[in-house]
């Protein structure tokens, strides 16, 4: 592979060799050129090899794309996910859960990427079972009560008073790139959701594709001032000041947990504290001179600052 590049947005794939594992946003898999187009030691070794066998001299090296570090920033405002639902497209009402691909949206083409939120009412606790593809956060009203995933499909629901709103936020973490499992890639909730083996019925289903039109609608929302920290899924908005001549950089999300970064409404990709990727490549061509809007969708808990680096950063994951 000469140039791995970047899986911008939601387009990263996944592997499944007995366990579903999403591919990171960076596809800089020890390629000859980095995702930012920089030369590597491997590149110079190959250049030396080709130069030794060619009858004519190699052309001069192209100049590298300039990089820079921008001032650190901190989000100014935030919106809990629950405040955002009114700015989404009309939800789907269904007796049973519907997976992303079968939602009656986008002219009958369903939902391809992103998140999907299921809401239904429950009037008792017990053992919840759901076939989730790929991972889900479970809430009673706005309180997180647990996580579901491919390998962990059961969760104990505590005793509830009266009837409560059960919410299941599912993330599509990427479809497999190869193997026979390609034909079985459905995302969201698959089949019935049960408590103590009794199917739940009556769902309101929100599609969170997070397209640019969605972020345009968010401009009319009443954002809350962000002063300290917030626990739960939320959007955070801030400003990246790129000066008069924007250049490439690498974003580092300090103490943030897991989510996505949007630059001027465009999806840069996923960040996740577990690694291996610790920075996100941000091309200078994505930035406007002067002020740029940066929005984070953080799934779990807010962090502190958003930093920029001259170089990418990765860590070893065992």
UniProtKB/TrEMBL annotation:
The keyword Transmembrane does not apply. Residues 233-292 form the Beta-galactosidase galactose-binding domain. The keyword Transmembrane does not apply. InterPro entries: BetaGal1-like_ABD1 (IPR048912), BetaGal_gal-bd (IPR048913), Galactose-bd-like_sf (IPR008979), GH (IPR017853), Gly_Hdrlase_35_cat (IPR031330), Glycoside_Hdrlase_35 (IPR001944). Transmembrane segments: none annotated. One of its GO terms (molecular function) is hydrolase activity, hydrolyzing O-glycosyl compounds. It comes from the Eukaryota. Pfam families: BetaGal_ABD_1, BetaGal_gal-bd, Glyco_hydro_35. GO terms for biological process: carbohydrate metabolic process. Belongs to the glycosyl hydrolase 35 family. PANTHER family: BETA-GALACTOSIDASE RELATED (PTHR23421). This is Galactosidase beta 1 like 3. It comes from Rousettus aegyptiacus (Egyptian fruit bat).
